[in-house]
């Protein structure tokens, strides 16, 4: 019996996929390129990059994500607005319909790894209708063949059945719309359909790891990470659009990963094998490493506008979405570590995209302040990241990744605080959002200034700089920084109207307090005292 026949038998007996027309198993990236083109799944740019278009959904569909509520998950999952429950009966119904939907169809199967630390890795299997989605998955996760490994047919512990062409029936299936992202944590099974946006594949696996790893004492993080020549590891927390990918891709530091990491007793390790970068308004001058990937074979571009005749890309065109994306193997970044793992961090940087334009561009955090801002997770939802978001909107996303956190925030916060104290980590809050006014009147932070501030923090150049306490937020702001004008460091001085600044800053401080009431009973008095000075009851 051929290896593909063995897989076919396994898929039939384990997942009920017994009527598949053809199975393309673990095809290489070039073969998937050819398959996707032959099947008219996308187009090729002038530089030979595959360009796909995702239709209605150009970002995640958070309202359509559910976790199956069963005996294994009921007492562990943080149920609520983020982690919405689905009954086992509804899951079985939509699984059965997905099995019938795939009958007689071709599928592309990729067996991959999530987690660069071999003792903590999660073997995953992606089963999808489309060759380009298989290529995306192959880009984003760790490829066993790169490690001279081949996963056994029954080795994957989680399987994604990806049927983007299938629409759910809300009345029959218990969903809110035709789209669905369903996690069955007890059965190791994920169903995704009704949306072609590829990011749902990677984020569903991240949600699974956020459930599994902390239960083993491993901190899972929505963060990028890199390491200097002296082995000094930096973790950069932040939601989409805050600069995790941009700031971690530093030519003077080795990239560990751009989005998802674990922190175990051995150190920091990437949960992925690729990067998923926003490319709207990308320029060779400001972000040369990422810009180069948009011209490199192996990259998959999502929803990037391209001239129909010349096939030249227009990275500045947002007519389809602000959330244009590039998926590429991390090995396209020169000097990146793959599989990505290193020691314990020396610095933690929390990135926030402040749409109010009042937070300092950089401030030094005490451990308690780091815990407070980690639990708060203040940033702005950037246009296009989620369906319906057309301009930055202030939001609090606990742990800088609430949409992907399956457990209660106190689990992740407790692990973070423990590891900060254990390893003596320096913590910083960096605002990559607006300055001189709110969104619409102020300007976005200069990326060169932000890079200079981050580099100064990582190089120790800010360790001896005098700081002053911000009277509204209580943050310690450096009074000087190499290659950054002094007035940039003081958010109040960048506003022309001091009264307007005071009002807007107090408004945001009050919002911090209001948001934190949901967590105040479960944290120490020291963490509560780390809240903004203004707006206290």
Write structural notes for this entry.
This protein is an alpha/beta fold. It is 26% helix and 24% strand. The protein is built from 14 helices and 29 strands. The strands form seven sheets. An eight-stranded mixed sheet has the order 1-6-7-8-10-9-4-5, with helices on both faces. Strands 11, 12, 13, 14, 15, 21, 22 and 25 form an eight-stranded mixed sheet that branches. Strand 18 and strand 19 form a beta hairpin. Helix 9 runs antiparallel to helix 10 (409-423).
Short characterization:
Helix content is 26%, strand content 24%. It has 14 helices and 29 strands. Helix 2 (29-38) packs antiparallel against helix 4.
Features:
single chain; 537 residues; alpha/beta; eight-stranded mixed beta sheet; 29 strands; globular
Topology:
Layout: H1 3-15, E1 22-25, H2 29-38, E2 43-44, E3 50-52, E4 65-68, E5 84-86, H3 88-102, E6 106-114, E7 122-128, H4 131-140, E8 158-163, H5 170-173, E9 180-184, E10 189-193, H6 199-212, E11 219-227, E12 233-237, H7 244-248, E13 254-257, E14 260-264, E15 267-270, E16 274-278, H8 288-293, E17 300-302, E18 305-306, E19 313-314, E20 325-329, E21 345-352, E22 362-365, H9 367-376, E23 378-381, E24 393-396, H10 409-423, E25 426-431, E26 434-435, E27 443-444, H11 447-459, E28 467-469, E29 476-478, H12 486-489, H13 498-516, H14 525-528
Parallel strand pairs: 1-6, 3-17, 4-5, 4-9, 7-8, 8-10, 12-21, 21-25
Antiparallel strand pairs: 2-3, 6-7, 9-10, 11-12, 11-13, 11-14, 14-15, 16-20, 17-20, 18-19, 22-25, 23-24, 26-27, 28-29
Helix pairs in contact: 2-4, 9-10
């Amino acid at each position: 019996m051929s290896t593909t026949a063995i897989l076919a038998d396994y898929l039939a007996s384990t997942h009920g996929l017994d009527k598949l027309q053809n199975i393309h198993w673990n095809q290489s990236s070039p073969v998937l390129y050819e398959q996707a083109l032959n099947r008219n799944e996308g187009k090729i740019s002038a530089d030979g990059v595959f360009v796909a278009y995702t239709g209605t959904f150009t970002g995640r569909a958070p309202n359509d994500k559910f976790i199956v509520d069963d005996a294994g998950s009921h007492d562990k999952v943080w149920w609520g607005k983020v982690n919405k429950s689905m009954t086992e009966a509804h899951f079985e119904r939509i699984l059965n319909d997905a099995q019938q939907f795939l009958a007689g169809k071709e599928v592309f199967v990729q067996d991959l790894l999530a987690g660069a630390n071999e003792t903590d890795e999660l073997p995953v299997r992606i089963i999808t209708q489309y060759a380009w989605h298989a290529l995306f998955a192959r880009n984003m996760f760790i490829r066993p063949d790169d490690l001279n490994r081949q996963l056994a047919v029954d080795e994957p512990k989680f399987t994604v059945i990806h049927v983007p062409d299938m629409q759910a029936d809300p009345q029959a299936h218990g969903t809110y719309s035709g789209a669905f992202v369903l996690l069955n944590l007890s059965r190791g099974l994920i169903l995704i359909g009704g949306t072609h946006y590829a990011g749902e594949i990677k984020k569903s696996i991240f949600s699974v790891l956020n459930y599994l790893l902390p239960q083993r004492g491993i901190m899972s993080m929505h963060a990028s990470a890199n390491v200097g020549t002296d082995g000094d590891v930096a973790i950069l927390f932040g939601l989409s659009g805050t600069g995790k990918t941009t700031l971690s891709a530093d030519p003077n530091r080795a990239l560990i990963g751009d989005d998802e990491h674990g922190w175990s007793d051995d150190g920091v390790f990437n949960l992925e094998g690729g990067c998923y970068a926003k490319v709207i308004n990308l320029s060779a001058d400001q972000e040369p490493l990422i810009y180069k990937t948009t011209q490199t074979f192996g990259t998959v571009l999502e929803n990037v506008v391209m001239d129909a005749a010349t096939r030249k890309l227009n990275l500045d065109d947002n007519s389809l979405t602000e959330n244009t994306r590039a998926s590429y193997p991390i090995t396209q970044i020169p000097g990146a570590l793959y599989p990505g793992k290193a020691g314990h961090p020396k610095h933690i940087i929390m990135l926030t995209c402040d749409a109010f334009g009042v937070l300092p561009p950089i401030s030094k955090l005490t451990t308690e302040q780091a815990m407070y801002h980690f639990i708060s997770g203040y940033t702005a939802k950037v246009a296009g990241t989620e369906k319906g978001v057309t301009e930055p909107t202030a939001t609090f996303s606990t742990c800088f990744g609430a949409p992907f956190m399956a457990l209660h925030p106190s689990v992740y916060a407790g692990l973070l605080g423990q590891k900060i104290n254990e390893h003596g980590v320096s913590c910083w809050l960096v605002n990559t959002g607006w300055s001189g006014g709110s969104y619409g009147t102020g300007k976005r932070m200069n990326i060169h200034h932000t890079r200079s501030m981050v580099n100064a923090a990582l190089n120790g150049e800010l360790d001896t700089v005098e700081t002053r306490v911000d009277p509204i937020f209580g943050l310690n702001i450096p009074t000087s920084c190499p290659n950054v004008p002094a007035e940039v460091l003081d958010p109040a001085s960048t506003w022309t109207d001091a009264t307007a600044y005071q009002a807007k800053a107090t408004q945001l401080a009050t919002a911090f307090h209001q948001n934190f009431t949901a967590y105040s009973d479960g944290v120490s008095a020291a963490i509560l005292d780390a809240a903004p000075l203004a707006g206290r009851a």
